[in-house]
Design brief:
Largest sheet: 5 strands, parallel
Distance between the termini: 20 Å
CATH architecture: 3-Layer(aba) Sandwich
Helix content: 40-55%
Number of domains: 1
Structural class: alpha/beta
CATH topology: Rossmann fold
Number of helices: 9
Bound molecules: adenosine monophosphate
Strand order of the largest sheet: 2-3-1-4-8
CATH superfamily: P-loop containing nucleotide triphosphate hydrolases
Length: about 220
């Protein structure tokens, strides 16, 4: 059997990692692990992990590695049982997490194929996040102006209720961007000489971005 291949979707909050991840999942029949989604599910179910993570997420800070790393390793191992391609959305988010991802790949004989780094200016990101609506049930995102749901407040995909995430508020958005620039962006240096880094301008429309992203998967 071939080794499981791991792709990383990297970039600031609101740059479109989730949207691109969903499009890739559909087109290439692979499985996406979103650390943000796992945390939100734990918060909904009021698990111990969810309660601990919530205080950090609401402030726009990263959840500590002591909570995140074990959770991610378990999720990757579980998904790898039935999938030969895994997309990581939102992990790694600091250099230590990038190192641990290398360790996980070595330990389980997975291959880190590509780090797809999306980027856009802060003003584009702030606009996308401030008017973003998220489905409570399936996590699909909409935008109040550019990607309205057919029926106000209702998810087109599953009929779930749309809400504004507690970390999509101006104060939390500012913190998330600060955290990204100070702690997450340096991960790009970590991959700079690996030959695995593909940097993509993500200020275009999701459809245009996906054309470039899909090429990376097809090649
Ligand atoms: P996201 O849905 O990817 O925007 O993530 C929402 C929030 O979950 C982030 O702002 C962090 O507080 C937390 N989070 C997600 N992924 C990680 C990670 N890899 N490490 C630490 N915190 C994370």
């Amino acid at each position: 059997m071939n080794s499981t291949e791991v792709y990383v979707l990297f970039g600031p909050p609101g740059v479109g990692k989730g949207t691109q991840g969903e499009l890739i999942e559909k087109k290439f029949n692979c499985s996406r692990i979103s650390t943000g989604d796992i945390f939100r599910e734990n918060i909904r179910n009021q698990t111990e992990l969810g309660i601990e993570a919530k205080s950090y997420i609401d402030k726009g800070e990263l959840v500590p590695d002591s909570v995140t790393l074990g959770m991610v390793e378990n999720a990757i191992v579980e998904v790898a049982k039935n999938n030969s391609i895994i997309i990581l959305d939102g992990f790694p988010r600091n250099v230590n997490q990038a190192e641990v991802l290398d360790d996980i790949c070595e330990k389980y004989h997975y291959v880190l194929k590509c780090v797809i780094a999306l980027n856009a200016d802060d003003n584009v990101i702030i606009q996308r996040l401030s008017d973003r609506l998220t489905c409570k049930k399936c996590g699909t995102t909409f935008h109040k102006i550019y990607n309205k749901p057919s029926k106000e407040g209702v998810c087109d995909k599953c009929g779930g209720e749309l809400y504004q995430r507690s970390d999509d508020t101006p104060h939390a958005i500012a913190n998330r961007l600060d955290t990204y620039r100070s702690t997450t962006e340096p991960v790009l240096n970590y991959y700079q000489h690996s030959g695995k880094l593909a940097e993509i301008d993500a200020s275009a429309s999701p459809e245009d971005i996906s054309k470039t992203v899909f090429k990376l998967f097809s090649s």
